[in-house]
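User: Here's a chain of 299 residues. Predict its fold as tokens.
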Amino acid sequence: MSKTAAAVAEAAPAKINLALHVAGRRPDGYHLIESLSVFTAFGDEIAIGPAPRDLFTVSGPFAQEIPDGADNLAVQARDALRKAAGSAAASPALIFLEKNIPASSGVGGGSSDAAAALRALARFWKLDIGVDALARIGLALGADVPMCLHSTPLVARGIGEVIEPVDKFPSLALVLVNPRVAVGTPQVFAALARRENPPLPPLPSRRDTASLLGWLATTRNDLMAPAMSLAPTIDDALTALSGAGAAFARMSGSGATCFGIFDDNTAAQRAANAISTARPDWFVVATETTASAPPQKEH
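Assistant: Prediction complete.
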């Protein structure tokens, strides 16, 4: 058995689908997507520590909304990684999850928790395993897990497992708004009127915010209309973001969380304060996205 590390922590950022096109459906029922996805400074937190036996604890504002046992994706990630790694991952682990992302909110909370658990457990158990191998393990847990393992601006295709990192992508100032309605992903896909839609257009060669906003205006979230048919208050969230000065507003994933892009973090925080004051029953947070990592210099 390998010697275990001390306690380790990993961020589990919210995943935002800036654009999400449904381009087809496989014979097994999985939908084929093309999505430009980014990740935010806001999110959940995972910590792993030594324990006399496997334990899982959860706290945070949305702890009561998620499974606290074997049905939790972080726990399933532990079991899947242990199965793949064998005796090197035998030592018990405490998984602590701070749940800041609302459940069933369209920003990949559970998938990001699973990805963070895989990264943290690999460090805790000192496994010699890369992100691609972790992504193969994660894909069995959910189609969004490979995206969340990369946690960098990317285009995802297939069912979400074909990842193409996007370089020179700037940080964006966002406000996330959820009108506190849970929208089930299977129900949204079931309500989708058309499953064969045009793919994403090519990304602009310039990656400044103005160019990206122009590009986003030519794209879609194909799940927005079916989600709004199930939860009309999504439109209220979009209206609130536009009314607070968002340069662009759209629903993320299968909903119901919507995002607005603002000129800078100060404008985003001002908008979040205004929306929170007007709708104290909603979930509202100002955040920013993670920019692409600078290219590594060749030695």
